[in-house]
């Protein structure tokens, strides 16, 4: 299922620096969350997650699931 991202409000982490290695997220009106590479603003691709998928991702971050060894 695709999403119309026209008018989406994209956010980047306040910890982000201007070194072109960041992602941005947009919380869509239907509960889904879009994520894109901050270098690809405009017509670049975006991943779109359901609210449940996003919650699982957030839980993994909090639990340290994605820490490098």
Report low-confidence residues grouped into runs of 5 or more: none
Number of domains: 1
For the terminal residues, how far apart are their CA atoms? 35 Å
- Beta-strand level of the residues, as a percent range? 15-25%
Task: Return the average pLDDT rounded to an integer.
Answer: 87
Whole-angstrom Rg: 13 Å
Oligomer: single chain
Q: Classify the secondary structure makeup into a structural class.
A: alpha+beta
- C-alpha geometry: globular
Q: Order of strands in the sheet with the most strands?
A: 1-2-3-4
- Put simply, the count of helices is 1
Helical proportion, percent range? 10-25%
Order of helices and strands: EEEEH
């Amino acid at each position: 299922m695709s999403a119309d991202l026209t008018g989406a409000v994209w956010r980047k982490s306040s910890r982000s620096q201007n070194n072109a290695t960041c992602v941005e997220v947009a919380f869509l009106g239907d509960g889904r969350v879009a994520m894109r590479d901050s270098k690809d603003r405009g017509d670049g691709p975006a991943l779109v997650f359901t609210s449940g998928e996003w919650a699982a991702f957030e839980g993994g971050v909090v639990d340290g699931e994605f820490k490098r060894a």
